[in-house]
Amino acid sequence: MRSVRPAVFLDRDGTINEQLGYINHISRFVLLPDAGRAVSLLNKNDYFVIVTSNQSGVARGYFPIELVEETNELMKRELARDDAYVDGNYFCPHHPEGVLPEYSTECSCRKPDTGLIEKARSELDIDMERSYVIGDRWLDIEFAHNANLPGILVLTGYGKGDLEYIVPHKEIKPTYVAEGLLRGVKWILKQE
Fold first, then answer.
1. Which among 72, 71, 7 has a CA at the least distance from the CA of 39?
2. Contact residues for 85 (Cβ-Cβ < 8 A; gap 6+)
3. Residue 35 CB-half CA count within 13 A
4. How many Å apart are CA 78 and CA 34, to the nearest integer?
5. Nearest CA-CA partner of 53 in 90, 18, 86, 20
6. Taking a C-beta distance cutoff of 8 angstroms, is the pair 118, 92 a contact?
7. 48-54 and 88-92: which strand pairing?
8. What is the mean pLDDT, run by run of 10 residues, along the chain of 192 residues?
9. Which listed residue (11, 34, 87, 136) is catalytic?
10. Taken in order 81, 43, 121, 192, is the CA torsion positive or negative?
11. What is the side-by-side strand order in the sheet with 151-154?
């Protein structure tokens, strides 16, 4: 029998790895300092770690879907250096204004819609009452809100700019703002 556990849904680019725009080559993936430690802490405290990211560069024709999968495998290898692992990795390759017909569509998996969370819930026994979202964009906070989860904004990636220029004009606010992923994870663990 699988155990029911809370999850932390992590954005990838700007939260786990440096935000370098579209990762259109494997060499552009650079893990952020302390990302491995942060994920390892979640692992040790019995949280599911689930990566949820928009990868519209596929629909836009900037890179093939295989590169997203290759990059996600590299992320797993980099995290493993800190004895860290992800339990699920879900991404949306779609965009309604894409150039590749098979990915140029409206979908329910593109954040801030909650299709990626629903897919994870169908595959894992997640305690949603104790789960969180962490990301570097206001969009991630909206994603959290749409899933009725607390949303933590990290100041890596686009976080500082979104906090200063976007959040003040939005009704939906982050539950917590953290310097980076490790601080966000430590805050979550203090809530338990």
1. 7
2. 39, 43, 49, 76, 79
3. 28
4. 11
5. 90
6. no
7. parallel
8. 86 97 96 98 98 98 97 98 98 96 96 98 97 98 98 98 98 98 98 89
9. 11
10. negative
11. 88-92, 48-54, 7-10, 132-135, 151-154, 176-178
pLDDT of residue 1: 46
Please report where in the chains the tokens 């801030």 appear, as a residue: 112
Alpha helices in the chain (DSSP H): 35-44, 65-80, 115-123, 138-146, 159-165, 181-191
87 is catalytic: no
Q: Amino acid letter at 54?
A: N
Is the CATH code 3.40.50.1000 the one for domain 7-191?
yes
Residue 192 confidence (pLDDT): 82
What is the chain's length? 192
Active site residue 13: yes
Residue type, 146: N
